[in-house]
Design goal:
Number of strands: 5
CATH superfamily of the largest domain: P-loop containing nucleotide triphosphate hydrolases
Shape: globular
Radius of gyration: 19 Å
Largest sheet: 5 strands, parallel
Oligomer: single chain
Helix content: 40-55%
Structural class: alpha/beta
Number of domains: 2
Distance between the termini: 40 Å
Length: about 250
Amino acid sequence: MLYGYEKKEKIFKNLVKKDMLSHAYLFFGENQIGKFYFAKHLAYFLEYQKFDILEKPLVDAVIVKHPEDKKTIGINQLKELSDFFHQKPLVSDKRLIIIDEAHRLTRQAQASLLKLVEEAPDHITFIFITNDKRSLLPPLLSRLQENYFQKISTKKIKKILEKDFQISSKRSKKVAKLSFGCIGRAINIVNDNSEYTDDLEGFLNKKIINLFLKNKKANSKIIKKLLDKKVEVERFSLNPKLQKKAVQYILNRK
């Protein structure tokens, strides 16, 4: 189920019905905020006229992700797009190409996608998804229609948790605060996947959450630095020990 973007849902439904989808979009915003799930809901709406994730195969949509053993999306991951790109839709009016975590695209992969975006026929729509649009090359970025996914209010997340997850008022209030406005993060916490892991990302999450709980306003600048560090960690293969030392250095200077 999709949460918090009812207005966007209405807008995109109307665009589909009027055959006015753009040829290329950029969905950007925080991690775990619902960008990818929105794109997937749209894919099912195009094929089955239901804005939901169904237990049915997607025929006219392809999702590009980075391989589990790599931090980037290289040119090799785009080879499968060639046939898909040139074929007409089978069940829908559009074929959808979703690039998840587009900030992981190598420069070579971005250049290749730029060419595809420029040459895209009317039946193709691209959706690039990222938490850092600065990582995209300006020529590619300029050809994408930007669509920002804003954070959801703590009050709204609390209400969703109580209504759809049967969470108590006390716990839902705490989880909503820890979510930083990202519904995906809230759901992970509820499902005991609270990001309190021993790896580098888990280490960063602990520091960010502790600073937030101590004094969100006073620690806002340092929280921003640590969130930027999280983006770095997600994009590049960095040495965990050195990065933990770098984080500790940032904390000692606050």
